[in-house]
Amino acid sequence: MSALELAQSLIKIKSVSPNDEGCFDLIEAQLIPLGFAIERVPELNCETLLAKFGDSGKVFCFLGHTDIVPSGPEEEWTSPPFEANIIDGELIGRGAADMKGSVAVFIESLKKFLKEYPKPNFQIWIMLTSNEEGEPEDGKIDTLINSLTAQKNFIDYCLVGEASSSQSVGDVLRVGRRGSLSGNLKLIGKQGHVAYPQKVLSPILEAGPIINELKNTVWDKGNKFFDPTSFQISNIESGTGATNVVPGNLTMLFNFRFSPESTAESLQERFVNILKKSKCEFEIDWTLSANPYLTKKTDFLSMIQTALKKINGEEAEVNNGGGTSDGRWVSPSGSEVIELGPINKTIHQIDERISLEDLEKLQEIYQQILIEINNLIH
Ligand SMILES: [Zn+2]
């Protein structure tokens, strides 16, 4: 099966998170003939597939996912989202760029690489989840990661095939991601008649200076690889609907996207200190969705940049923007984690697509990365 055929077959499977719906079976059928040993590790409501080739040397792992976000209204698509049609040289369908295309071309790269180098001097793993996009309650790759960590079975080089590129394939890669910390604040005042200000405590008026201070606080300055930590409020609710009643409560949902110059604990503490300036009592429910990570070692980065120079004629820009990714699970054990994949312009959108030219280019880049690892490590 060619990379394009595999990408099309995967797109035809409606594998909305956390359901794999048979994508793993298709992928296994490609990997077993190449000599990979396959494990399926159960997570809460999903599975992680781990395929391994070789048993000595450094461990290189391709990390990816087979799940997709919902298509949205199918009638708005130029071509149905689960038909994987090719229109004007572009493969259209949910998951084309995020990231069934990457998975398919990586497998093609492996086939070509192993033909040329049947006994590579490093181990090759492929780790795939069916719940990258979905809710943490359905499970992530943490059961597998924890068991690998317990066995001191570490990944040296981790390539995440997420859509990192901006204008052309390989123009941008990521060596880290920001953290995400959310909170649900309840500000507790005292309800009463608007005509008796001395008898009420308005959580809305108390929220004013707090929000102002939160907006103006410099949480950190970021660093060479990260923008400064940012704070945003996504929802505020208060009020009874009546004009003559001061409400007793206000709720506010907020989020920090934070650089490694801050920690979840330091942000929580500073947030609480600002809240304490209000006369209101308060309660906060915190959710830490992801800690930031940054790969500081540069061996793998230089191998990838060398590969990009050979295929694209230039190195990629290093940029750590965007949401969070599963790279965060692998990074804490000291792995070098790098994200490099398709152009991210259409991901999660109606008419998600990848050009056939880009699929080809990405396949060449992944293959060259495997060659560089084989040349450079012993
Ligand atoms: Zn993705």
From TrEMBL:
Membrane-crossing segments per the record: none
Family matches, as SUPFAM superfamilies: Bacterial exopeptidase dimerisation domain, Zn-dependent exopeptidases
> Which CDD domains does UniProt cross-reference here?
M20_DapE_proteobac
Q: Which UniProt keywords apply?
A: Amino-acid biosynthesis, Cobalt, Diaminopimelate biosynthesis, Hydrolase, Lysine biosynthesis, Metal-binding, Zinc
Residues at the catalytic site: 67, 132 (proton acceptor)
Residues annotated as binding Zn(2+) 1: 65, 98, 162
Listed under catalytic activity are:
N-succinyl-(2S,6S)-2,6-diaminopimelate + H2O = (2S,6S)-2,6-diaminopimelate + succinate
Q: PROSITE patterns of this UniProt entry?
A: ARGE_DAPE_CPG2_2
Please give the Pfam families that the UniProt record associates with this protein. Answer: M20_dimer (PF07687), Peptidase_M20 (PF01546)
Lineage, top-rank taxon, reads: Bacteria
Report residues binding Zn(2+) 2.
Answer: 98, 133, 348
For this protein, what does the record note about how its cofactor is bound? Binds 2 Zn(2+) or Co(2+) ions per subunit.
**Under the GO molecular function aspect, what terms does this record hold?**
acetylornithine deacetylase activity; cobalt ion binding; succinyl-diaminopimelate desuccinylase activity; zinc ion binding
Give start and end of each Peptidase M20 dimerisation domain: 175-277
- List the cofactors: Zn(2+); Co(2+)
EC assignment: 3.5.1.18
Please name the pathway. Amino-acid biosynthesis; L-lysine biosynthesis via DAP pathway; LL-2,6-diaminopimelate from (S)-tetrahydrodipicolinate (succinylase route): step 3/3
- Any one GO biological process: L-arginine biosynthetic process
State how it assembles.
Homodimer.
Q: In UniProt terms, what function does this protein have? A: Catalyzes the hydrolysis of N-succinyl-L,L-diaminopimelic acid (SDAP), forming succinate and LL-2,6-diaminopimelate (DAP), an intermediate involved in the bacterial biosynthesis of lysine and meso-diaminopimelic acid, an essential component of bacterial cell walls.
Which family does the similarity line name?
Belongs to the peptidase M20A family. DapE subfamily.
PANTHER family tied to this protein: ACETYLORNITHINE DEACETYLASE (PTHR43808), N-ACETYL-L-CITRULLINE DEACETYLASE (PTHR43808:SF31)
- What is the name of the protein in this document? Succinyl-diaminopimelate desuccinylase
Species this chain originates from: SAR86 cluster bacterium
Instruction: Tell me what gene encodes this.
Output: dapE
